[in-house]
Amino acid sequence: MRSDLYPKAFKLVIPCRNCGDYIAQCLSSLQDQSLTDWTALVADDASSDDTAKMVKPFLADPRIKLRTAPERLHLMGNTVSALNSLDIRPDDVLAIVDGDDHLQPACLEKVWEQHRQGFDLVYTDEDIGGKSHSIGRAPLKGIPVREQLWCFSKLRSFKGYLYTLLDDETFRDEKGEYFRAAGDLSICLPLAELAGPGKIRFIDEKLYNYRVHDQCNFKVMRDEQLDNNWFIRSRPRLSPQTAHFDFTLEVDDIDKGDLFALGEKYEKVISAPHTVRLEHPIQEDERDSWRAYHGLWLADRVFLAEKIVEPAWNK
Description:
The protein is α/β, with parallel strands linked by helices. The protein has helices spanning 23-31, 51-55, 74-84, 107-116, 160-164, 183-195, 217-220, 222-234, 259-269, 287-290, and strands at 10-16, 39-44, 64-68, 93-96, 102-103, 121-128, 156-159, 200-210, 247-250, 276-282, 296-299, 302-308.
């Protein structure tokens, strides 16, 4: 069987503002990828330099499109607007590449392969301005991601269904404005919570080149970035989502005393990291006797849900 979330399209968004000196290298690095089946939307945040002009030669490539905001939307306003303009399907792979950064040639291929294996939030390690240190690592186990040292280096990619489960409020500050700084936290932390630890994959290779320059947010908006950081971390954490599963199977004639064994059985049948939704068909008058069992996880990757069926005489 093939997962219902098996990826079919790789869609990149490239938010940028005054990246005229860098955007050509960014787009060239996409064209140099060993994986060639992708599309990219350059989201120009009303740049006051020649960013759009530098993008135009690349529009001869049908995979690359340009979208220019008529007025400045700032970091997350521009990013969210670009993402929302896409036709996002649950199994799409989405990724955000900053317009002043660039990728190593094998980056997209290695990320794509992890999504094909069943991971829904995938990120790589990064080269930070040629420095030897790195912030990337796998998340700590058993500790809420909002309480961990930041580890989600770039490139970050995620299944489309995860993004569509986020409310617009996720990307806004206390005043209701889109975050201008610390936008990475506003999207990565809730995505990681919704995906759940078993669906997250860190690729321990420096496949993304993060450019350090004088206009980086951590330099020009340092105080705002730190304030937003703690505001985002203070928000209630999200539970792993239960709307999308790799496999949905119907189970009948199950016993309440054997549910743990049932979960263990399907974890052996369905390989990690894939998730399974077990639908238990019952009639309306049986709901009360099962309400303490339905809508709960039987194992790390196995979820039990009710499926109400009409009695045969009512059909």
